[in-house]
Write a structure and sequence with these properties.
Order of helices and strands: EHEHEHEHEHEHHEHHH
Strand order of the largest sheet: 3-2-1-4-6-5-7
CATH topology of the largest domain: Spore Coat Polysaccharide Biosynthesis Protein SpsA, Chain A
Number of helices: 10
CATH architecture of the largest domain: Alpha-Beta Complex
CATH superfamily of the largest domain: Spore Coat Polysaccharide Biosynthesis Protein SpsA, Chain A
Helix content: 40-55%
Strand content: 5-15%
Structural class: alpha/beta
Length: 321
């Protein structure tokens, strides 16, 4: 008996926007055509152009978030909007709305919690070489730190989520690093995830990117390291332990050899530094062991909360009212 297959969960398309008046009408129309039964929400983030008026005229339900940054907008939308399946997409018109039904179907059929739209560039003007290189580097780093190999485009802003993913997501990021946080949340709870290759095009004429290659790349790198320290503290502090001890060995071996030959310690500041590094290494190791126990408890709590949320917004055997 599989009662959920006959149910049609409510779909919500979430579009965070900042100064996208040139593209938002087409984005709303494209997703209305691709997902005709979905509710489409546009949340404005203090735009100085006509984004709100254009989105409302296009038929979207319009909301807003005063705190600046994509992460703030995503947090607000996840809190405000109730649905069974969520489609998150940028409002710049670069993502392919026609791919949405396949992504939603993959989520439903395979009972996944997240499907990522892996970007396939179709126009040279759609991307900068620095962005492609940076995305590959950050994807590799995330895979190294968290052991993930399921997602090849961790910075994609085009994703489909289950109800329980959205309602169990403790959004903390404020800007474009929110995509990294979404990925790590899925990895840490061992959620079933997948990706679908989707075309990625150029922005609408006259529209400008809000992404700063170096500033936002650095912010993504910083939050990745913060999440590694928070979610994997023993490896994080273990690396510090090994680094301190290696430096202490490099500095201390010549001192030890000199002491064995002459019975003297000629460089007291260096000797003091070696002792300090050894102690710092021990402190790092103990800190990692303690915080790892705390992280395990926190992860267990998050997992139990995640399991308590219905996958598509209804419990087994219930029909959506």
């Amino acid at each position: 008996m599989e009662p959920e297959k006959s149910l049609d969960p409510k779909i919500a398309v979430l579009i965070p926007c900042y100064n996208e008046s040139r593209a938002i009408a087409r984005v709303v129309a494209d997703f209305r055509r691709a997902l005709p039964t979905a509710d489409i929400y546009v949340y404005d983030n203090n735009s100085s152009d006509d984004t709100v008026a254009v989105a409302r005229a296009a038929g979207a339900t319009v909301g807003g978030e005063r705190y600046q940054g994509k992460g703030h907008v995503v947090r607000r939308m996840f809190a405000d909007i109730d649905a069974g399946i969520y489609v998150l997409v940028d409002g710049d018109g670069t993502y392919d709305a026609a791919s949405a039904p396949a992504m939603v179907e993959r989520l439903r059929q395979d009972r996944l919690d997240m499907v990522v739209g892996s970007r396939q560039h179709t126009q040279a003007s759609a991307y900068r070489s620095g962005h492609v290189w940076g995305n590959r580097m950050l994807t590799w780093l995330l895979g190294t730190l968290f052991g993930q190999r399921e997602i090849s485009d961790i910075l994609s802003g085009y994703r489909v989520f289950s109800h329980r993913f959205v309602k169990s997501f403790p959004a903390l990021a404020t800007g474009f690093e929110t995509e990294t946080e979404l990925t790590v949340h899925a990895l840490e709870l061992h959620m079933p995830v997948d990706e679908v290759v989707t075309p990625y095009g150029a922005r609408a004429e006259g529209s400008t990117s809000k992404l700063n290659t170096y500033r936002d790349g650095l912010r993504i790198l910083v939050i990745m390291l913060r999440l590694f320290e928070k979610e994997r503290p023993l490896p994080f502090y273990g690396i510090l332990f090994v680094a301190c001890w290696l430096i202490a060995l490099v500095l201390g071996i010549p001192l030890l050899l000199t002491y064995l030959e002459s019975g003297l310690v000629p460089r007291m500041p260096t000797a003091s530094a070696v002792v300090g590094l050894v102690l710092l290494g021990f402190v790092s190791l103990v800190t990692g062991m303690i915080t790892d126990s705390i992280a395990l408890g926190r992860r267990e709590t998050k997992r139990l909360f995640y399991l308590a949320v219905p996958q598509f917004g209804y419990r087994r055997g219930e029909r959506e009212r």
